[in-house]
Amino acid sequence: MQADHGLRQQIEARLRAFPWQAADAGPHQRAAVAITVVEEGFGAGVNGLPVPSAWSVEAALLLTRRSAALRNHAGQWALPGGRMDGNETVEQAALRELAEEVGLELPPSAVLGRLDDYASRSGFVISPVVVWAGEARALTACDAEVASIHRIPVGEFMRADAPLLDPGDDAQRPILRMPVGDHWIAAPTGAVLYQFREVCIGARATRVAHFDQPMFARR
């Protein structure tokens, strides 16, 4: 699956047709994350995934490992994102966080659409914004927040064993994980990635707000 104009048009059309659902923030803080479609480049640097020997134009998603020095969610997999500032829109916040965390500045026209809000156990309502970045060759990690940057091939999220579901505190809220290489990514990031797979690639209107997080991801 190449990161070409046809894929961009497909994702944008499927997001336009998808009636994404908002969540009432209530006492929660609002946050935005960027689901960034890029070319795979030289690979993800993740155990269990092959690393291409030359620049690859296969479609990938941009993920980070959070700095071990952070107070919340240290060392965890994440999509670039964070708290919304002032009167920012969700889209403005996602693009700002993308620039701050990985040095990728994109115009508003890069936004393809939105997925469902997800209310996390750590007190945030997370709004995912899908953006198109193409090559995105010049990425720079923010030392204070990002330990490493990874380009995960979209095909990896299409694995037959995904998602992994475990029993949770509530029988109606199984804990979701998305396998990646020899590891996995927990909800909420894993839930957002699963919905991207279902809606944008599989054309299935799948909801994920009911999936829960493992205990370590709730802090």
From TrEMBL:
InterPro entries reported in the protein's UniProt record: CoAse, Nudix_hydrolase, NUDIX_hydrolase-like_dom_sf, NUDIX_hydrolase_CS, NUDIX_hydrolase_dom
Keyword Magnesium part of the UniProt annotation: yes
UniProt keyword annotation of Hydrolase present: yes
GO MF assignments: coenzyme A diphosphatase activity; metal ion binding
Domain of life, source organism: Bacteria
Requisite cofactors: Mn(2+); Mg(2+)
A Pfam entry, by short name: NUDIX
SUPFAM superfamilies to which the protein is assigned, alphabetical: Nudix
UniProtKB keywords: Hydrolase, Magnesium, Manganese, Metal-binding
Record domain Nudix hydrolase: where: 28-178
Protein family per UniProt: Belongs to the Nudix hydrolase family.
PANTHER family the UniProt entry points to: MITOCHONDRIAL COENZYME A DIPHOSPHATASE NUDT8, NUDIX HYDROLASE
Name this polypeptide is given: CoA pyrophosphatase
